[in-house]
Structure prediction request, 597 residues.
Amino acid sequence: MHMANELISFPVAGVSIGIAGGVLGWICKSIRQDIVSEKAAVMGVLGAFVFAAQMVNFQLPLMPGTSGHLIGAVFLAVILGPHLAAVVLSSVVIIQCLLFQDGGLLAIGCNLLNIAIIPSYIGYYVYRLAAGNMQNKSRYLAGAIVACVIAALAGSAMVVLQTTISGVLLIPPVLFLATMAGVHLLVGIMEGMITVAILGYLASVRPDLIAGLTASRAVLSRNGALISLAVMTLITAAGFSLLASDKPDGLEWSYLERPEQPDFKPVVANSDQRMDAADKLHSKIAVMPDYSLGNTSELHSASAGWTSVAGIVGSAVCMGLIWLTAKLIRPRRA
Amino acid sequence: MHHAYLDKYANQNSFFHRLDSRVKFLAALIYTILILSIPPRSAAVVFCYVVAPFGMLVWAGIPIGFVARRILAVSPFVLVLALSCPFFDQTPYLLRLGDITFQLSGGWMRCFTILAKFAATMLTLFALTCTTRFTDMLAGLQQMQCPSILIVQLSFVYRYLFVLVDRVHHILRARAARKLRYLGLRQEIRIAAIMIAALFIQSLESAERIYRAMQGRGFTGSFHALKPIRINRRDIYFIFVFIGICIFLHSIMRIWLNELNGV
Prediction:
């Protein structure tokens, strides 16, 4: 589920790029010490492995013609640990944007968070919590399924959160959340089953991979995992409680004009002349001035309709001309 | 899969291919921001913004059919969400052309705008990626202070992507030759898991070999570009034309929207 540019607003895009860039920069800085160039080769090849593994599809029951495939976030997080998995998956997301054109250039912050960073950390911590000390095989396999489901749900919840804050789409957040969560529950269960199957096979063929890696990764204390999980839950819950209420939030409520209470004076009102001047200046130079296109009574004037048509036709003619010139200029190839 | 399947047009040679990758990257970023700043419900304005990336693609010799197919391939998610708009915004919207009037809902206008913006920003992204070699792009990003671990990681992924995808094609063909019917979900998942696990072990082993080979050649942890990238006269022309186009389109948009709002 790659986000497109058009589904998010500038503040969301900017903030998410900032957060994703900051987190990635922090990870890169903190793993620089323990990565010798040996790990660089492993990480690079595993990034390519994610692409290849996503091409291995399997038929789904009940829905002929559809197929599922591994996403790989939790699998990598379990094998490599969350930091390395986050870097590998981030490189995958960036290449999907720049090479496969999947996901927009400005939405890349959202995509990095939703697909790479959040699933690998949440997946890893949930897995550590559920798997315990890796003694009980059925327990750590069950842990992998739970981790996949929760990671998929967290990613989809982030999509809902970002689009709703942006306000580009008009779907009620609860409905959107329910749909996305339903779809991603299935995705997560499928992902969990195949992850478990892979881990089980690796444990029987190359037990050194799983044992060796988990032994070195077992540094994370249970308390650390619990605390980070609690923080993430709190953040998510806070986000959703904000979303779920249709009422304006506290700040808006305080300066909102209230038509049903004529004698109510907005708490935050500023009638300073300088403020008006600043507003005017801002609306003159702003990239996106506040156009009030939302009024029901507003209709297009006749000339405006024609301007739109002229714009579209003019653009089409331009493109036709460009195409023709290119045809004429280009040297003929055999 | 051939090596040059994904970015087969990035290795051509044209005016746009020879531009500095940093200039193109920033130009694409700014242009995307401009397109996204168009307010919702003004689909017609977006059409003007399509012209420039279209021209860049056509003059660079990239077939538009290829681009259109790729855009269609990545569109389903956006398409579904855009088509949901008409259900939630029923405000009437009257479009009048002389005597003919169309009754639309605001939701449809919003839907058209989202789709038009999607097409426009996608064309911009294609205009960037189809005219820039990935290695040049990485060199440019490194110049722009991207963390070097990320750059090394991206170039590794790019190099081995084709090797592993090739390997997966072999595995998939072998499965297709042996598995002739649907075997039930449990068995299907088991087979896919074994394929992926085998691929994983192979990848780890080849990574070890690669590391040894790179050490033998004196790899120090960062890649070096053969030719230094620098801005030359061609880039200056491009920057001036680009700024001109941006100012032109932006002023058109403002005049137009003022007219729409009856100002």
In short: Chain B touches chain A through 118 residues (CB under 8 Å). The radius of gyration of chain B is 24 Å. Chain B has two domains: 21-138+231-260, 147-216.
